[in-house]
Structures are given as structure tokens and as C-alpha cells.
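Entry 14. Structure prediction run on the chain below.
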Amino acid sequence: MNHFSELTLDPRLHQNLARNCFVRPTPVQAQSIPVALTGADLVATAQTGTGKTLAFLIPIVETLMKSAAGAQSAASSTIQTLIVAPTRELALQIAASFASISANTGLRCAVVVGGLSEQTQLTALRGGAQLVIATPGRLEDFLNRKLIRLGGVLTVVLDEADRMLDMGFLPAIEKILGALPSARQSLFFSATMDKSIERLIQRHSRDAVTITTERNAARTPDQIDLHLYEIESEMRVGLLHHMLNQEDGSFLVFARTKHGTDRLARRLSAGGVRAVAMHGDRTQNQRNQALAGFRDGRYRVLVATDVAARGIHVDSVGHVINFDLPQAPEDFVHRVGRTGRAGQRGSASTFVSKAERGEIHRIERECKVRMNRREISPALLSEIAAALRSQEAAAAHQVKVSRPEKVARKHSPSQYAGAPKRSFGRRKKFSRS
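Output returned:
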């Protein structure tokens, strides 16, 4: 399949695809869509940014439109398709894509995720949504409280299945899949494929067709330049500032912890960089605003944890920075896959200390990559150190200037001059006689 026009689809779906400039399918779309349209189970392995969302949404919309055309109103309002994704951001982006290609079809979608109004989600479910897009935690909660029924689901999609297992959602996924009819279509989409995912697929699929669009699913895309800088932790923010001054484009920076994410974003902002943090402790509104600001250029740098960044799909990310190493080698693939999307060339740089050389070798071995070692010259190192000292001095001066009165009251004896002396007599002793 070279063009979407070759597919036998409802004319309204073809119009929506053309309206959104979807003309030529990506490799994963070209291989997956014809299989999914037959109703067969599918396991598709492809890198992030290769169009997996559309690969399952087109068959879903086509199937739902046929079902709605031939079913009674009561049956057509039953939940027929379930999509499970690891994060709120990804679930909301899938919902937005669904809205684009299902416009003017009458199909309805409900999003079931944490961090948003539960009542709004229940209203959407009761309003007759044929498609539910959910995160595992909130969906499991709805199942436990009997707020949702999945007995009519005919198709289930697990998007980014590898990440959901990495996040510890296997028990929730097992419960969700166990609540579905056994006679259903199961579609699994993943960037990597390991034994835990293979076991899950074996338990919950029937004669699945397997598609792999990369020679090795653990490899990073060829259009990404991988660089490695050996530098100690306390000097990394200085190197990042230097790169921001030398390079154009946006930066997606990965830190390991929520606290580290906030601290780095504050330090960059103090240095004049438009930066914002994004992690699991931020409210959904804060995360939406951060992502929207990063997309439209109000923020040049988005500092994020692995979990929060999982739902980020921005085609124009110029640089990915591994400020801290990922917890697992497969996370390296997910991180760097955020750049070099939509046919563009990307750049990903990793900061590492001498003590972390073993971790780098493990990442390169398991992900089958080789990072280009870049030396930091003594002159640049001295420049970075001097800049950091200057920033620290400026920050200390700012703190001192911001509260002079408090310091004066604490240390100046002049405020007590002329004050009447107060005598304190000895406390009387009382006897029990």
C-alpha cells in the first residue's frame, strides 16, 4: 500500500484523512492497517514516532462506522472498542487523533484517565461512547467500582505495551483483559519486545500476525545523531547552558527524579532560559500547559521524567538531552525517539560520569547503538566552571539583597539602644506545707 486511497474505506473516512493531509502511509501503517481490517489479532513492533496511532485508529473508525450503520441504536451505543495507553497525555492525544479522522461520523469517544474530572468521564460513558481510551489505573478503578462494563468490547488495543509493563501495570492489564469477551480482536503495539510482553501476548491473543518494521526493535532510528559527554553531575547544567547557546531549536531534557526535574528547570530559568518542568506530581492542567507551551515555542526547554514524557509527541524536538541516565536500557530508546521524528534529523546527547561507564556500555550493547564520544576541552571546562561560580555568586547576592531587614534585626545591636531595661526577679519557691 503506497497511498491511503488504495484502502476500501467509508468515503467520510477518506475525506477526513485527506483533510488532515494523510496521504502516504508509514511502513507500520502500510503493514498493520490491512491486517487489522480483516479482524485478525496483530502484534506490531515499531519505533516511536512512526505513526502507530493512525495504524490502529483507521481500522477502528472503519469498523465502528460499519457497526453503527448496521446496528440498532441501543447496540451502537455499547462500548465496542477499548484502547489502553500508559499515560494521560498519550490517551488525550489518541482521543484528539480520533476526533480528527472520525469527524462528521457520529462516533463518540470517552477518555478514562486519572487527574481529570471523574464525573465528566462518567457522563461521557453514559452518553453512549463506542470507543473508550483509558489508562490502566483509572480503568481498573472503574472496573472495581462497577462504573464501566466491557462485556461488549469487540476490539482491544494495547498501545506502548512495553512501557505499561515497565510502569508496573501488568496486574491492572491482566484484570482489564480478563473483563473482556474471549471472542475479540486484540491489537498490540510496542516499541520493544521482551519476554514479559511475549508472555502477555501469548495469553491474550489468537494466531496473531506479527509485524516488525525495524531490523531490530531495540535500535534507535538511523536519523538520530547520538553523542556522549563524560562530565560529572555538578558540571552538567553548565554544559547544558553551553549547548543551548551553541545550538538552535528546542530541547527535551530527561532527569531521573521529580525533584531533580524541578530543580533543573529552576536553574535554567534563573539563567535566562525559557524552561518548564513536567512530572507526575504536576496537575493535569499544569502538564497540559507545559506541553502546549513547549509545542508553540513559549518554552524552549522541557525538563521531564520518563513517565511524564511518555505521552509527548512533538514533531519538532531538535535535541534530546539525557541529563541523567535512564533506569533501564529500553528507556534510552524511548527517550531518544522523541527527536528525529516525521522524517527530520534529530540529535540526542547523553551526560555520564566516569562511574557510569558500565551503564553506558550496557545501553550500547542491549540497544545495539554506538554513541559518538565528544571530548570537553580544558578551556570549555574552565569556562563552564567560571560560569557556574558566577551564577552561584549572583544567586547568593540575590538572597542577601532580598531580605536585608531580617538580617539587620538579627545581627544589629543598635535596635536595642535606649530601650528600657527589664528586670526579671527570681521565681518564688512554693512549698506544699
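The CA atoms of residues 99 and 188 lie 22 Å apart.
Filed with the rest of this week's runs.
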